Structures are given as structure tokens and as C-alpha cells.
Amino acid sequence: MTTKTTSPPSPLAIEARGLRKAYGDKVVLDGIDIAVPQGTIFSLLGPNGAGKTTAVKILSTLVTAEARALRVAGHDLRADPRTVRAAIGVTGQFSAVDGLITGEENMLLMADLNHLSRREGRRVAAGLLERFDLTEAAQKPAATYSGGMKRRLDIAMTLVGDPRIIFLDEPTTGLDPRSRHSMWQIIRELVADGVTVFLTTQYLEEADELADRIAVLNDGGIAAEGTAEELKRLIPGGHVRLRFTDPAAYRSAAAALHGSARDDDSLVLQVPGGGSQRELRTLLDRLDAAGAEADEVTVHTPDLDDVFFALTAPSHKAAG
């Protein structure tokens, strides 16, 4: 007899329970919970002004807040902020790069701030400049860099202290598509090395592409949280599209699939559903029973844009 074993869950890199922040009468975060396992990417989505940057500032020790529990990198953030700061890196919406000095000088400045020796600082700076494909530009003023190069230098500077948790607050804002995809690859490589990434973004495709879990922030609370696929299933509108070339097969299928939307000109049926394996099997069994074979079967589900707009609509009340 064998005993089934399951892997223990990853320890939490970031944990906030009952996180609340108000500025005067304006409540920005109204008792939200956040849990981010080590070595994962967690993305916080929300409309402008929803409190994403405020959450980053709190968790990176830049702003104080109320909470029942607030732990980052295994340390109580309020009791031991110095230790937390030593374990994290932060890249904000606006570049921290000094354009008046070279890329290498920016890196060496960060090495000094992290109390590295001159020799160690030069070694670390050279390694990161090479890793981020900035060696050729290292001796040029950072003001001459493209937007994508500045962003890469920004993250390279963040990594000088070898942080195990990185907060990226809208890191690809303003970048062209090629630079954005390059940044995505950098983020994936960081996580492959065991780094935890807390990402805020205004690009829903970015969260869909990168994040292990996504939370949608609205009206001070978490409106929904889950994987991208879980969030997409929250929104109605999914359907299976069946295309036929044989008019007789199309008519037989339409008769068997009550409630499907018909397009008699294109010989296309749309059957409401989430496209799960069980739903597809049942649908195909009904087609077989009707003696109708579709030439093309495609599943259409709502995307993160649909989720975002539904959860952040003015009439939607956040639950968190």
C-alpha cells in the first residue's frame, strides 16, 4: 500500500491581513488580504487611483498602514522594517536612473548604497550589465538610453542587493511592444531563479501572460482573486462555436442543440458554455447522436479585459 504525499505549500513571501489605509476621509485600502507564495508572480490590477501604488508603498516600507498582520520576507514589516528593506527591491512607475551619469556609474552608486566593497561592486555591476544586455552602453550617459534600456537598467540597479522579493509598479508603462516583451522575459527569468515578483500593471495582457495569481482591486477592496483562467470563468459570455460546411448537418445540429445562436448564412452555431472538458464531451455526444459532424469547433471565453471592466464597473461592489 502506498501513501499519497502532497508537497507542502510554498512559504509566503508576502502576507497582509486586514490591510487598511486612509488619507483623511478617503479610504484607499479597506481591509484587504494579500498572500503571495515564494517564487511566484502576483499581479494587482485596478483602475487608476484604485490604490495599487499605495499597496506597493506600504509593503515596501515606504508608507505606514493599519493591518492585523503584515509580513514580508518572513519578517514583521512594522516591527522590523530595516530587515524587510534588505530583502526587497522596488522599481516604480518612474525610472530611478540618473540620466546625467553613465549606466555603469548608476550601478556602482547602487553598489555603494548596498555597502558593497569597491571590488565586489564592480563585479556585481559588470555581471548585471551583461545580463541585461547593457555592456556596450555602460559608458554612455543614461539620458541617451531608449525607454527599454532605461527600464532594464532600472531593474538591474534593483538587483544589485540580490533581493528575493521585487516590487514592480507598472514596469512597462510607455514601452513599445518589443521592449515590453523583452521585459516579460526578464521577469520570467527572475522568477526561475526563485525571486518573488509583486507586479502592478495597467496592461491586462501582461498580467495574463505573467502572473500565477491576479487580484482585482476596486473601491478599496479585492473584487476577485485567482488565476487568469479562474477569473475569466467568473464572467458570462463564454461559448463554443461550431462551423459546418454541410447544410444538412448544420440543420440537424441546430435542431439538437436547443438554445444555440444560429447564423444560417455562415452555417455557424454558438452554444453558451465555459468550454470545460465535460461540457465539450457532452456537446460532442449530442452532435454524434444527431448524426451531425462540425467541421470546426472553437471555444471562446471572456478575456481579462472583460473581467476587468465587469469587476471595476461603477455599479460593482468590491468584496474584500
Structural description of this entry:
By secondary structure, the protein is of the alpha/beta class. It folds into two domains: 12-97 and 145-231, Rossmann fold, CATH 3.40.50; 239-301, Alpha-Beta Plaits. 35% of the residues lie in helices and 25% in strands. Strands 6-7-8-3-9-10 form a six-stranded mixed sheet, with helices on both faces. It has a four-stranded antiparallel sheet with strand order 2-1-4-5, with helices on one face. It has a four-stranded antiparallel sheet with strand order 12-13-11-14, with helices on one face. The longest helix has 16 residues, at 177-192. The two termini are 44 Å apart. The relative contact order is 0.13. The model is unreliable at 1-5 and 316-320 (pLDDT under 50).
